[in-house]
Amino acid sequence: MPAPAPDQPPLIARADLFGDPVRHGGQLSPRGDRVAFLAPRDGVQNLWVLSVDAMDEARPVTDDRVRGIRRFFWAQDNSTLLYLQDEQGDEVWRLYAVDVARGFPRALTPPGISAEVIGLSPSDPGGVIVTLNQRDRAWPDAYRIDIASGERTLLQRNHGCARFVADRENRVRLCVRPQPDGGAEIASFDTRGRLHTLLDIPFESAAPSQVLGFTYDGRAFLMFDSTGREHTALVRVEAESGLKTVVGENERADVVDVWLDPSTSAPEAFATEYLRREWRALDPETQADLDFLDRQLAGDFTVSSRSADDARWIVVEEGPTTAGRSYLYDRADRSGRRITSLFRHRPELDAAPLQPMTPVEIPTRDGLTLVSYLTLPAGSDTDADAQPDQPAPLVIVPHDGPWARDSYGFNPTHQWLANRGYAVLSVNYRGSAGFGTAFLNAGNREWGARAHQDLVDAAQWAIANRIAADDRVAIIGAGFGGYAVLAGLTFAPEQFRCGAAFNGQANLFAYLDTAPLSARAELYQRVADARAPDGRQILRQQSPLFYAARIRGPLLMGLGGRYGRGLRSEADQIAQAVRARRGSLTYLVFPDEGRELVRPANRLSYLAVLEHFLGDCLGGRIEPVGAAFEGAAINVYDGAVNVPGLSAFARRPAPPQPREELPAPDADEGAGGPEIETMPPFDAEAAAPAEF
Predict the structure, then answer these.
(1) pLDDT grade for 666, boundaries at 50, 70 and 90
(2) Residue 264, SS3 per DSSP
(3) For residue 86, how far is the Cα from the chain centroid?
(4) If DSSP codes are grouped into helix, strand and coil, which group holds residue 529?
(5) Bridge partners of 418?
(6) Euclidean distance between CA atoms 317 and 323, whole angstroms
(7) Hey, how many other C-beta atoms are within 10 angstroms of the C-beta on 269?
(8) Nearest CA among 620, 619, 690 for reference residue 378
């Protein structure tokens, strides 16, 4: 790697930021005597186990050679690990069990049938409760699986349940049923398996409302609830009557997390998050834990795992300049609490020049406030006022979802781009979760309209405050973030100099057509109703596919070839439109990936291409490709000559594919689309970054 210029920090290697962590995901066994975690084995992420009494003697218990393991659980027998794995990104999850003493994983569910774990109980240590979509692909049934024998017992057939909830005895007790108006019903099963309505949740409150689990005696359950309130609260619901009692709430932000006693399920603390996450204890003992951890740890922390007797916790510390550290917290003797380092997730970043992150509040043209997070290049802000001395090239990174949020903390994308010389801005556009019911629902039917305008407003705010150079703003993202990229380049081509979209949905008709049946009613309300003329008009106007001829700036498109949401044909059509105008296009397909780039070789190869793409567009620093393409599976249809070594993966572009059952585009391919309101002038002083 070449030496940096004297006034620039060393380049942080992409592999250090985006390769698999050295160790992470630690989970205590029920008895608290062992820790299972994820770590590479011969370059592939596998399950490892260590004894608390011999923490230096970790050993692998799986030997996956392809995609690696990402989701796992301890069975309540204290000797078995369960994990879910799909086939090359198809999101059909198969359940496996592995004995930690002997290894040799066993499949507990059939191939081609998707499983989800919904119950593990100390009262049933040899069993696990799952849903399987064997009978009906859209509406999976609930089963008990005997871990030792693999025998499956049907517990509940599905009659319109988007989710089942089991109690602490592994009895399936609740069904969450979507309603035709986009709302939800929480119903309970009686002894004969019949459903009785407990709660009706209106559409406006359905997305943030979520059942967490039953109390130890089964008489009540806890949930996040937004019904009849602006911000989501933690509530206790009586299982027989549906009577609610508020346990915790905040007037400014939603409740987003809770600590539950592992033996009683009693709530001990809850967290809310506006600019940063804040914890509030519900009893003095928990307050003592919070105070102790605050004193011991410099960064923000979360409790990721607890032993059944609550004597040991795994605590993860993280912050913008702290790349994840796991600790073993021994609290058996309350007068002698101890915290011991378990492992650092990315020790290679300990000495890296990581940059601080600043929460900012950005005003929109129609009076909303967008909580956002800004990271600046090293050395660009000498007076530490969250504004660079000179406007910098800016990369806006909208999050996936859209019903999710960006948060304060370690963000590898921010650190990578800031290290390369860019200002980086993550924006919680309208429709993002965590900021109340009104803000969430302000994004309804506004994907390519006001939600898109929020990102334009954020770019204009950054320019007005001299954070960004007005002609050097890029936008990159994945999932909904990829959709936002395509919307930005088609609906506001003058605002964004270039854009990079991974698995970006370009056609909202196809997005709805390929959505799970259990989610359709809500999506018709939140995106648009394809069954109604006005809904079809919204989908038509807000689908970048139909306006691809407007794209002027360079475009990087990446796809997972196994992601079954109809993206390939849409991307091919966008590529054809860009080629027709002789535009700048880089188009990659990863044939063995789905929604995410799971294999490190594929992930690092995409990022190497993206880094060159941004360097060409905005002029930032570039780490040489090096070995980034080794072991990657890529088909490159456009732009192979733009990156050294990428030509080896070049393929001929696919022939044009006709659109089927889609509204025809306007005769003038540049006509139509959402009307973008004129941006009022910004008052730079009034819109200055909020102090952190």
Answers:
(1) very low
(2) coil
(3) 18
(4) coil
(5) none
(6) 8
(7) 20
(8) 620
State the Cα–Cα distance between residues 526 and 403, nearest whole angstrom. 10
* Per-residue confidence (pLDDT) for residue 665, from 0 to 100: 41
Q: What is the pLDDT of residues 577-604, one digit of tens each?
A: 999 999 999 999 999 999 999 999 999 9
> From edge to edge, which strands make up the β-sheet containing 24-28?
24-28, 34-41, 44-51, 54-60
Q: Is residue 370 within 8 Å of 687, Cβ to Cβ?
A: no
Residue 660's CB is within 10 A of a number of other CB atoms, namely: 7
The β-bridge relationship of strands 115-119 and 184-189 is unpaired
Distance CA 160, CA 184 (A): 11
Euclidean distance between CA atoms 559 and 543, whole angstroms: 18
- Model confidence over 338-349: pLDDT tens digits? 999 999 999 999
Taking only the tens place, the pLDDT of each residue in 512-540 is: 999 999 999 999 999 999 999 999 999 99
pLDDT score at 684: 31
Question: Residue 548 corresponds to which tokens in the numbers above?
Answer: 């691809």
For residue 345, give the amino acid letter: H
State how far the Cα of 462 lies from the Cα of 452, in Å rounded to an integer: 16
First to last CA, the chain: 35
Between the CA atoms of 674, 680, 685 and 691, what dihedral angle is there, to the nearest 10 degrees?
Answer: -20
> How does the average pLDDT of the chain come out, rounded?
92
- So what CATH class is 358-507+543-649? alpha beta
**For the chain, what are the domain ranges?**
358-507+543-649
Radius of gyration of the chain (CA): 25
Distance of CA 419 to the CA centre of its chain: 23
Secondary structure in 3-state letters for 321-333 = CEEEEEEEEECCC
Confidence of residue 369 (pLDDT cuts 50, 70, 90): very high
Q: What pLDDT score was predicted for residue 8?
A: 87
- Kindly write down the DSSP assignment for every residue of 313-381, as one continuous string: EEEEEEETTEEEEEEEEE-SSGGG-EEEEEEES-GGGTTS----EEEEEEE-TTS-EEEEEEE--TTS-
Locate 536 and state its tokens.
């079809």
Of 436, 512, 531, 522, nearest to 183 by C-alpha is 522
* Over residues 33-38, mean pLDDT: 98
Order of all β-strands in the sheet with 80-85 = 71-74, 80-85, 94-99, 103-107
Least confident of 7-11, 271-275, 638-642: 7-11
pLDDT (0 to 100) of residue 671: 41
Question: At a CB cut-off of 8 Å and minimum separation 6, what does 141 contact?
Answer: 131, 132, 133, 134, 135, 154, 155, 156, 157, 158
What's the token pair of residue 674? 């959402």
Summarised one tens digit per residue, pLDDT across range 405-422 is 999 999 999 999 999 999
Cα–Cα separations (whole angstroms), residue 15 to 10, 164, 601: 14, 40, 10
Measure the CA–CA gap between 354 and 12, rounded to whole angstroms: 9
**220 - beta bridge partners?**
238
Question: What six digits make up the tokens of 179?
Answer: 């309603």
Q: Which of 687, 686, 691 is nearest to 461 (CA)?
A: 687
Q: How wide is the angle at C-alpha 599 spanned by C-alphas 346 and 107, nearest 5°?
A: 105
For residue 292, the model assigns a pLDDT of: 95
| ∠ CA 655-568-598, rounded to 5° | 135
Sequence-distant (≥ 6) Cβ neighbours of residue 372 within 8 angstroms: 359, 360, 361, 362, 406, 425, 426, 427, 428, 458
**All residues at 6 or more sequence positions from 192 whose CB lies less than 8 Å from its CB, including other chains:** none
Q: What is d(CA 573, CA 498) in angstroms, rounded to the nearest whole number?
A: 19
User: Strand runs (DSSP E) across 402-444, as ranges?
Assistant: 423-427
The reply to whether the predicted model has a pTM over 0.90 is yes
